[in-house]
Every structure is written in structure tokens, then in C-alpha cells.
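hiii, so i know i said id send this last week but things got crazy w the move. better late than never?? heres the sequnce for the chain we talked about at the cafe, plus the structure i predicted for it. fair warning i was half asleep when i ran it
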Amino acid sequence: MTDINIRAARPKDAPAIAELSRQLNEVVKDSTEHCTPENIKATLFSHDASFHVLVAEKDGAPVGYAVWHAYYD
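okay and structure toks below
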């Protein structure tokens, strides 16, 4: 069995989230310009961000993430 830990993301996870996002966008042939640690920090971890972020870790290294917000539009 694989041990995966799910936890709230922290700003220091921005480089890993940016890399995972870049990899996903390459697979779906979407833009990767915004997949930078700086952009992730600014959009997901600013004091007024309305997003929630979880990180999945295996052996202490991020292997996945989930982003959501509480509002439907």
C-alpha cells in the first residue's frame, strides 16, 4: 500500500504546485506561461485569495494538488 498524506498547502509549496500545474497543462496542451512559483504565490496564497489548496505528499514530496473555491458562478 502507498502512503499518501493530504494536507493544506503552504506558500513554500508554490514551486512544486507550479511544476505540477505546468506538467498537467503540457499534457492537455494548454498554456504554461502562468505556471510559475511567483504566480502561484500571488494567486493562491495572497491575503485576499478565495481559493483553498490541498497538497498530496508521498515520502514528504508533493505529488498532487487540488484547488477549489467556495463560490459557484
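btw The CA atoms of residues 3 and 59 lie 8 Å apart. thought thatd interest u
miss u guys!!
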